[in-house]
Design goal:
CATH class of the largest domain: Alpha Beta
Radius of gyration: 27 Å
Shape: elongated
CATH architecture of the largest domain: 3-Layer(aba) Sandwich
Oligomer: single chain
Strand order of the largest sheet: 2-3-1-4-5
Number of strands: 10
Distance between the termini: 48 Å
CATH superfamily of the largest domain: P-loop containing nucleotide triphosphate hydrolases
Order of helices and strands: HEHEHEHHEHHEHHHEHEHHEHHEHHHEH
Largest sheet: 5 strands, parallel
CATH topology of the largest domain: Rossmann fold
């Protein structure tokens, strides 16, 4: 993959000076088109050996582009003391649509270093590359384009340049990505791993571009030309077509009736009033004790509540809040996305709220909106919600690997009980804000939601992040079941 870059590529000063003005003008025009359209964002990944000029390319692009819509995204090597999942920092910094981010140090850094240092075998490295490929495919589908540049420089020349910079009277800042790889053996393994990673993750939508870096002017001109080509290609992408609303399921004569997993629940389950206060207090005390241990300080708790309208999510969350230290948890009520959230992939609004270790986050509605309300209401197409199952599983896998307990609840009630609770809300002044005309309208789509819930549970209930279906016709029973499930999950995870 790097063979042609090993040959001499040079651009004399006169040729560069003649080329630069038109390249700058074209880049600015293409960037302004990206800004005006606000349909996509662009991340430019700049990788290469230390001494290849990553910082120089960054500075050159800053001189050529409008810096008001340009961000520098720099990341150090992940360390063992990180208190959030490793991918959190990349998600947090995703630029909004219409902007360009230039990234030094990316999600490739840790897998390559671990492979070079012998900390991961071939199978583990291949698995990490597969995960990266899925992540980049998701970014592309969600409006984030990638331009991946690898600056190639002969290893001996790279070391010579680093030594020269360290001996100069003026100590220039040098971008060091691979400082932890000191031995020649580790450097050699890095070269092999780099080529393997480039081949495995060079896809149609985000290929790697190898840029010879021996001559600075040639390097910068080629990087600028690749950026111009990418911006122009993004401007020509068609706008997504609006999605039609899905019809309610209809019974086909002679076909099996649609199965609903919610129909398997025994909604008659009750918890006697005499037992409720005692069992609730016991489960709350277990949660309080477990979330105040030293083991929990190295873990965390992420809870997602979904369910039918009026199923009791808010009142259940209230009982959970009573068991938690208010300084160490947050509740996020998820409504329609804001303009800031619509300008990024849908999972961004949830990644940004992943808590530090030792803390809890509760989502009242969650990332499952993509495969529930957005699916049922036609706010996204089948391609979008169809791929979301895998994206959600990857998101939750990141949380579990970082030590978080992931608890997911669907609170279920019958249509008759929902109607009764709606009518009750209309008669109680302080509950009227909970009821909207849209709530009544959504009842017409009950079969669509049942089908969506069934597929959601089938495709996203995993061993490490299972769904818990809660019989919520009796609020006392539902609250105790939810809190008991959380306490049991914490006990199992923390030991």
């Amino acid at each position: 993959m790097f063979e042609s870059a090993k040959f001499e590529h040079r651009l004399d000063k006169a040729a560069f000076k003649a080329l630069e003005p038109s390249l700058r003008e074209d880049l600015l025009n293409a960037q302004f088109q990206l800004i005006d359209q606000k349909r996509r964002s662009l991340i430019v990944l700049i990788h290469g050996p230390d001494g290849a000029g990553k910082g120089a390319v960054l500075n050159r692009l800053y001189g050529w582009l409008d810096v008001r819509k340009l961000q520098t995204l720099t990341f150090d090597m992940p360390c063992a003391t990180e208190d959030r999942p490793p991918m959190w920092k990349y998600w947090r910094e995703l630029p909004p649509f219409g902007q360009v981010g230039i990234m030094l140090g990316s999600w490739y850094h840790a897998p390559l270093c671990k492979r070079a240092l012998g900390q991961s075998g071939r199978a583990a490295f291949s698995s990490m590359l597969d995960e990266i490929q899925r992540f980049e495919a998701m970014l592309h589908a969600e409006g984030v384009s990638l331009l991946k540049i690898w600056l190639y420089l002969d290893p001996q020349e790279a070391r010579r340049r680093l030594n020269a910079l360290s001996k100069g009277a003026y100590q220039r800042p040098v971008v060091r990505e691979w400082a932890e790889l000191e031995s020649a053996h580790a450097r050699e393994r890095l070269d092999v791993a780099t080529e393997e990673a480039a081949r495995a993750t060079s896809t149609e939508f985000s290929p790697w571009h190898v840029v010879p870096a021996a001559d600075g002017d040639y390097r910068d001109a080629m990087a600028g030309s690749l950026l111009l080509e990418k911006l122009r290609a993004m401007a020509q992408e068609p706008e997504p077509a609006p999605q039609p609303l899905p019809p309610n399921p209809t019974r086909v004569p002679g076909a099996l009736p649609p199965f609903s997993i919610l129909s398997t629940l025994d909604l008659s389950k009750r918890l006697p009033d005499a037992d409720y206060a005692r069992e609730l207090e016991w489960e709350q005390s277990r949660i309080t004790r477990l979330t105040n241990t030293s083991a929990f300080d190295r873990a965390g708790l992420v809870i997602a509540f979904e369910g039918s309208d009026a199923a009791g999510k808010s009142s259940t969350i209230m009982r959970l809040r009573q068991a938690l230290d208010p300084r160490r948890f947050r509740v996020h009520a998820i409504a329609a996305p804001t303009d800031e959230e619509r300008a990024r992939p849908y999972l961004w609004r949830f990644w940004r709220h992943v808590p530090q270790h030792g803390r809890t986050v509760i989502f009242d509605r969650s990332w499952y909106g993509r495969v529930l309300v957005e699916r049922v209401e036609g706010l996204c197409g089948p391609d979008d919600w169809g791929r979301a199952y895998g994206e959600i599983n990857d998101f939750e896998a990141h949380l579990r690997r970082a030590g978080y307990v992931v608890a997911k609840f669907w609170l279920a009630i019958s249509q008759a009980e929902q109607a009764r609770r709606f009518e009750e809300r209309e008669t109680i002044a302080y509950k009227r804000f909970k009821l909207t005309p849209e709530d009544w309208r959504n009842r017409e789509k009950w079969p669509l939601y049942e089908a969506a819930v069934t597929e959601m549970v089938d495709r996203t209930s995993t061993r490490s992040a299972p769904w818990t279906l809660v019989e919520a016709e009796d609020k006392h029973f539902a609250r105790v079941k939810v809190l008991r499930t959380i306490a049991d999950s914490l006990e199992e995870a923390l030991g």
